[in-house]
Write a structure and sequence with these properties.
Number of helices of chain B: 8
CATH topology of chain B: Rossmann fold
Helix content of chain A: 40-55%
Shape of chain A: globular
Distance between the termini of chain B: 33 Å
Helix content of chain B: 40-55%
Radius of gyration of chain B: 15 Å
Oligomer: heterodimer
Strand content of chain A: 15-25%
CATH class of chain A: Alpha Beta
Number of strands of chain A: 6
CATH architecture of chain B: 3-Layer(aba) Sandwich
Chain lengths: 162, 184
């Protein structure tokens, strides 16, 4: 996703009630995170499950949160999602960078990238892949689910190789 | 001192402030000793009580947040000390009930009798207190009233004791009543 669009996605979510942006960085969403730093709204954690824990605490205090991570970190977080987020029905948006989407991405991403959609399905975690065209509608969809007190996922494809 | 005794000393001395309690026997002991709306029993997600506590502390700044953690739990999420240490929430009290064992899973050893958790916490900007007896615990609880956090109280406890009953409240109810308690 282009730099300008990533910044627009951040601004849109921020301006529509998402107060906290917590996670572990992923180059796929570098510009999204940079925009958050400019607004002093980013908290970088040591691991993804830690970020989810902090977001849960903030949500318990009525402050809406987004957790960002790479799909490798999403795999690290499966148990936290089932035994904390879903068990207690805590609303939050996950923004996940999808490495391994391109076939010629780095080898460590191949396997987890391939099973990423199946993992989401197995968890019954609702998700949408966001792109240049649908980002606003996808953000609206996620914000609506948060109002309904449901967790959801926005996926950002890694569509370039560096 | 066993864990349940330490827990009852703390809940007796603190006012009705929120507690986030770690999974396993810690939450069960708290539930059995003093169930109240401002207890958040984290029944899964081992390791994350301090992270949840940090999130609550940052957004409920008028409350003093207590985390009831175990040695096994905090060793699973030492990164949490780093994040807490850079943010330095003034209203966070992190209690570690340390019996150097994973008691809930059968008493397997943890590393806290070989590695000093207090030193790790100190280098992560915590103010650290260690206690072994009830009297020491009471004194420290009095002392920390005047000290800004993050504070860690390492309570050395003995293994064993009565096994408390399981928590029989639905997780979404635990959440809802905890959230309501934060607004009061």
């Amino acid at each position: 996703m282009k730099e300008l669009t990533q910044k627009q996605v951040f601004d849109y979510l921020f301006n529509n009630g998402t107060e906290n942006f917590i996670g572990v960085p992923d180059s796929t969403m570098k510009h999204f995170i940079d925009q958050g730093f400019k607004k002093n709204k980013i908290l970088i954690t040591t691991r993804e499950d830690e970020a989810i824990g902090i977001a849960v605490g903030m949500t318990l205090s009525q402050s809406s949160s987004l957790v960002f991570m790479q799909n490798a970190g999403f795999a690290n977080s499966l148990s936290t999602i089932t035994s904390l987020v879903q068990l207690y029905k805590i609303p939050m948006i996950f923004l996940i960078g999808w490495r391994g989407f391109l076939k010629n991405d780095a080898p460590e991403h191949t396997k987890i990238g391939k099973i990423q959609p199946k993992l989401l399905q197995a968890l019954s975690l609702q998700s949408k892949i966001i792109n240049e065209k649908n980002w606003k509608a996808s953000c609206d969809w996620a914000l609506k689910l948060i109002k309904e007190k449901k967790p959801c996922t926005l996926i950002l494809k890694r569509d370039f190789i560096d | 001192m066993i864990r349940k005794e330490a827990i009852s000393v703390i809940v007796e001395k603190m006012s009705n402030q929120p507690i986030i309690s770690a999974n396993g026997f810690i939450s069960r002991d708290l539930f059995d000793t003093c169930d109240r709306n401002s207890n958040f029993y984290m029944i899964g997600s081992m390791g994350l009580a301090s992270s949840i506590g940090l999130g609550v502390a940052l957004k409920s700044t008028k409350k003093k947040i207590f985390v009831f953690d175990g040695d096994g739990n905090i060793l699973m999420n030492l990164g949490s000390l780093i994040t807490i240490g850079i943010i330095k929430p003034k209203n966070l009290v992190h209690v570690i009930f340390d019996n150097s064992s994973h008691e809930s899973t059968g008493g397997q050893p943890t590393a806290t009798n070989k590695i000093q958790l207090s030193k790790i916490a100190k280098s992560a900007n915590y103010k650290v207190f260690q206690v072994k007896t009830k009297n020491q615990l009471v004194r420290v609880l009095q002392k920390i009233k005047l000290i800004p956090g993050p504070i860690m109280i390492i309570v050395k406890i003995e293994k064993g004791g009565v096994i408390s009953k399981r928590i029989n409240i639905e997780p979404s109810k635990i959440k809802n009543r905890f959230m309501n308690s934060l607004t009061k």
